[in-house]
Amino acid sequence: MIDDNLLEKCRNIVRATVSNAVYAVAALTDDELIQVTALAWLGREFSKEWGEAASKMYEKLLLEARAKHDHASIEYLVAKNNVLQAYIGRGLDLLGLDVFDYDKAMRIAQEKSAFSKPPTEGAYQ
């Protein structure tokens, strides 16, 4: 299954700009690339009805990705860059893994909410 290190790399790919996502994919090790390929395939074949069967489907796709892996895998993923991030995000979701670090997102939201409050009377004088 996906370890914490790869999960964080996938989160970074999903949240990155398209060009930064391409660089992040290119920096993956061969094993990580195989796992991300399987994850993207899982997201592409997206079906909420899978439920717990998604992890079995991921394992099957992982075997297929290993069998087909070569140096063209990076080019394949990069060619899909306009949908790659969505596929990876869906794949993570299907496996029950959060794309976002919700604690960090809450801290950012709280910081932003401090700026969105109306100014007190006379604040601009």
Automatic annotation (TrEMBL):
<dbReference type="Pfam" id="PF12616">
    <property type="entry name" value="DUF3775"/>
</dbReference>
<protein>
    <submittedName>
        <fullName>Uncharacterized protein</fullName>
    </submittedName>
</protein>
<dbReference type="InterPro" id="IPR022254">
    <property type="entry name" value="DUF3775"/>
</dbReference>
